[in-house]
């Protein structure tokens, strides 16, 4: 079985926990931007699952992270970005985007992201920013 998930909008990396003093105690909290993005990802996951139970066993994930082309760039540089010549070697870091997406999909698409045993990732520029991924149950070896 496989599930295709599209998360529209500019990809957001998982933010580091922040500390706040509450009287005599210090508490940790997740930044609002991360919480908001993870909610959007979970909703996309629920829609893709269409009421099915979370996937079981080892999983293979193919993920595309699509960043917006900066409007301040020249037309020539924008075209190079859309053709894959100019690549988005900038924030957010790929590993932080993976962490935000995977954490948000826990209990929705899979039981826990520890189930992901193979991952292929591409980060490119696009006119329509977002994350597109395919999650497949790994077939048992014959």
Automatic annotation (TrEMBL):
Gene3D superfamilies: Holliday junction resolvase RusA. GO terms for biological process: DNA recombination; DNA repair. GO terms for molecular function: magnesium ion binding. InterPro entries: Endonuclease_RusA-like, RusA-like_sf. It comes from the Bacteria. This is RusA family crossover junction endodeoxyribonuclease.
